[in-house]
Amino acid sequence: MTTTEEATMGTTSALRHGTGSGPGEDRDRGEGRFGRIARSPLGWMTVGVVGVGLVSVLTATGPGPVPVLGAVAAVAVYCLVMRRVARRPTPEIARSGAGREALPGGGIGPGFILVSALLITAFGGYSFSRAGDGLMSVLRTAIAVQIGAAVTEELLFRGLALQALEQLRGSRAAIVITSLFFGVAHLGTPGANAWSGLAIALEAGLLLGAVFLWRRSTWFVVGLHFAWNTTQQLLGIPVSGHLVEGLFTVDVHGPALLTGGGFGLEASIVPILIGMALAVSMLVLAHRNGGIKSRRRAGR
């Protein structure tokens, strides 16, 4: 073989290797347009919302441990979508360290609700009396229902929606959009109106989103959300408009701006102000930790 022939064959081989298809490229071609759409942030968010949402609808109001089983199923669906469709790791829901994240989150939730309830009571808005229901039955029901609600809602809004929108538009836009949608999602509950939807967006959507950006842990946010709802239920305060069986019954007095009216404490101005103050603090911590991503950084 001449030197010219060797050079020609070497160039041809290099071109073949440089422009040819490896296993990954063959797989991408085989998936076609649908596969590329599904792997986009809006694509895997949609697939995940449908999957986790379906689990929530089927299990949220089930008897006994059904909501807890639904939460386990929702986590499995979330992991499957993220790993197989989005093709990204899921450190935000890693089993290792889940307890260490959930416990401090669970400490913030009761503090938030108890301080809000005490302030409303001090201003004459609430008075409490002991309910006659059994302690253990109320606890079992509250824990099962609120675990299911906290896990599925956080997977939907912070795990899927916030992370997908963050990748597209950055952290700031993502937290604003998901907070608004969180408020809108609660408009269908009993006693809801435009004010209660805005209240939920400001105190809960903003705070839970800020906590996620700070900790980057679904378990921390789930712990906060679960403890928040459970504390309300045990106090006998409506949870986002839903009348609940608690350890106490609450009598409401005074203007709805103070008490939240029929929607419950979450439509009161008191937790709105507290929640926004906490959210700003969490966002400052997230910024210091590098948790606030610009559109360019998030899209990488």
Total of DSSP H or I helical runs spanning 4+ residues: 12
Mean pLDDT across the residues is: 89
Provide the structure class: mainly alpha
The helix content, as a percent range, equals over 70%
Helix and strand pattern = HHHHHEHHHHEHHH
Strand order of the largest sheet: 1-2
What is the β-strand count? 2
Quaternary status: single chain
Shape: globular
| CA-based gyration radius | 24 Å
Short description:
The chain is mostly helical. The chain contains 12 helices and 2 strands.
Features:
mainly alpha; 300 residues; globular; disordered N terminus
Structural commentary:
With 300 residues, the chain is mostly helical. It has a domain at 95-298. The protein is 72% helix and 3% strand. The chain has twelve helices and two strands. The chain has helices at residues 3-19, 23-39, 41-59, 66-85, 98-122, 135-169, 171-185, 194-215, 218-235, 256-259, 269-288, 295-298; strands at residues 126-130, 248-252. The protein has a two-stranded antiparallel sheet with strand order 1-2.
